[in-house]
Amino acid sequence: MIVNSMAILILLGTFLLFVLLRFPIAYAVALSSILCLLYQGLPLTTVAQQMVKGISSFSLMAVPFFITMGYIMGSGGISEKLIDLANACVGWMRGGLAMVNIVSSYFFGGISGSAAADTASLGSIMIPMMVDQGYDDDFSTAVTITSSCEGLLVPPSHNMVIYATTAGGLSIGSLFLAGYLPAAILAGSLMIGSYIFSVKRKYPKGEKFHILNLLKQIGISFWALAAIIIVVVGVVGGVFTATESAAIAVIYSLIVSVFIYRGMNWKGVWKVLDQCVNTLSIVLILISTSSIFGFLLTRLNVPTLAANAILGLTENPIILALLLNLILLVLGCLMDMAPIILIATPILLPIATSIGISPIQFGIMVILNCGIGLLTPPVGAVLFIGSAVGKVSIERVVKATLPFYICMILTLILVTFIPSISLLLPSIFM
């Protein structure tokens, strides 16, 4: 195996330099790739060829549809319905509104698939509501941002589609099913942490539980939750592909938002589509530029070199699994979610499979690690959104979030060392 050390140094070194200089990730990836290409004497037409190749995938066609569905449902009056449903389920507990926040994120995550959308949509409602009921503003914001990561695991998630494509065409249906139990465990751990704080700080209880109220809210929220059923059951049952299900879900979400819940008019639809185009352009630029980067990583044998280097440190699979999580957590502090998936997966997945971790299980590990990264400075996008929505300083939010980091890390450890958490549902239904 020929090793071109200088080319690898130019590729990775300039990329790291551009990231530290706060270049947009897409530009950092593209510029470092171009410099590496020039050093190797390859034609720059390779850039265009690899960019087109990177986004010329039928599976990736699901990404814009899922993003559009999330925006439409998030702006169409769905948030309030899901909050009412969550309140009917768990609002009676001590610290009831914190529990409602967490459960709402589980429901809403199945619609938006985005932690940022969850924080912006539910946070703008839940944080003021919690503060009015006597909860501390930093605690309310911390609960909101940490619970928003459930949305990354609950399908449909466009990040799962990106991972499935990057990992070599994994079953998207299996990945969708794999996310449910880890998300439920994450929600449970956050609820336990919130309950402990609520008892200690004597936060209020909600109204008593009434089964009739729960049934009523289920009936009201049925139209919103049916979108998840359309996507997941359709894909898992083989009725249609992920791309087809996403397209159908967009049409369905449009009908529900405009004609059933009436939370959006046609003028609002055009505004939402404008937001979708802005988001989608960022995602596709990242995917296309990362394709060049991935091409060069493979050409320079970087995944093999990295695997040999890490496996040379130890043969203990437990330490190696912890090391993989540590690498992903550090990357999460420096980069956004999509580029981590696109760049790290080809390098780390072979190491994970070599120690017996399934590609499906590793996908859940990657997404959960990236979710934690969204809450950590200096790049944590969801952390900044939560701070802005809650009108609380970054320092106070980080301090209030520290106990919830522990809950998330414990969930990550369980997902890492108990494969059945991720693989049980795919093994049953796929």
Task: Describe the structure in your own words.
The longest helix has 34 residues. The protein has 22 helices and no strands. The two termini are 39 Å apart. The chain is 80% helix and 0% strand. The chain is mostly helical. Helix 17 crosses helix 19. The mean pLDDT is 83. It has one domain.
Q: What's the arrangement of secondary structure elements?
A:
Layout: H1 5-20, H2 25-40, H3 45-55, H4 62-75, H5 78-90, H6 96-112, H7 115-132, H8 137-147, H9 150-153, H10 158-166, H11 172-178, H12 180-201, H13 211-236, H14 242-260, H15 266-299, H16 302-313, H17 317-334, H18 337-354, H19 359-373, H20 381-390, H21 394-417, H22 420-429
Name the descriptors.
single chain; 430 residues; mainly alpha; 80% helix; globular
Largest sheet descriptor: none
Percentage of β-strand residues: under 5%
Number of domains: 1
Q: Round the mean pLDDT to the nearest integer and report it.
A: 83
Query: What's the order of the H and E elements?
Result: HHHHHHHHHHHHHHHHHHHHHH
- Helix/strand/pairing category: mainly alpha
Q: Could you estimate the helical fraction of the residues in percent?
A: over 70%
Global morphology:
globular
Total strands: 0
How many helical elements?
22
**Radius of gyration using CA atoms only:** 22 Å
Poorly predicted spans: none
